[in-house]
Design brief:
Blueprint: E1 5-7, H1 12-21, E2 26-27, H2 42-58, E3 65-75, E4 78-80, H3 86-96, E5 100-111, E6 114-126, H4 131-139, E7 160-164, H5 167-171, H6 175-188
Parallel strand pairs: 1-2, 1-3
Antiparallel strand pairs: 3-4, 3-5, 5-6, 6-7
Helix pairs in contact: 1-6, 3-4
Length: 190
């Protein structure tokens, strides 16, 4: 195959997971705006953010296969992005305490004149979190660049009581589903 496979992301977590998909790829950070379209159901709005990231990179790599992704934490249909401050992170974690929320990753794959959009949903239940645990976690600095203010693959694992669904989706990339979608594309183009 002469086409390059491009991950439209600078996320080290996504890049690490993408290696497990098994196809050689390069990463290029997208400059697309991450704005939720409130007119769409939340899962489809997240797909559209992933699509905008893929389209941003695809404009200069039209001959290649481009993958865009976006992961969001959703509590009671309300999307929780990355915190803007430590206080914002503290409030998000307090709101997630003792509750089940969804982690939704939207994925867009662009190649030739085709586009594949899908999303994966994982339910995550937190233990009850006291102020000490929340403050201790925030002091790690880990919460500041994560949707919902936590990273399950890091210290955030001590917050999580249970997950239902794809663990890797919570980290930021539904690897098994992406592998299957890419396999069909890459075999079709050989």
């Amino acid at each position: 195959m002469n086409k390059k496979l491009i991950l439209a992301s600078a996320s080290p977590r996504r890049q690490e997971l993408m290696k497990d998909v098994g196809y050689p790829f390069i990463s290029i950070a997208s400059n697309a705006t991450e704005k939720v379209d409130t007119q769409l159901p939340i899962a489809f709005a997240i797909e559209q953010i992933a699509l905008s990231k893929a389209e941003d990179i695809s404009m200069t790599h039209q001959e290649d296969v481009v993958i865009g992704c976006d992961t969001m934490v959703v509590l009671n249909e309300i999307p929780l992005g990355k915190p803007k401050s430590k206080e914002d992170a503290r409030q998000m974690l307090a709101n997630l305490s003792g509750k089940t929320h969804q982690v939704i990753t939207g994925v867009a794959i662009l190649y030739e004149d085709q586009k594949i959009l899908f999303h994966e949903v994982t339910n995550v239940t937190f233990y009850d979190l006291d102020d000490y645990l929340i403050d201790t976690y925030i002091k790690t600095g880990e919460s500041m660049d994560k949707a919902g203010s936590y990273g399950i693959q890091g210290y955030g694992k001590i917050l999580v009581k249970e997950i239902q669904g794809d663990y890797f989706n919570v980290v930021g990339l539904p690897v098994a589903r992406l592998y299957r979608e890419l396999k069909s594309i890459l075999e079709e183009n050989n």
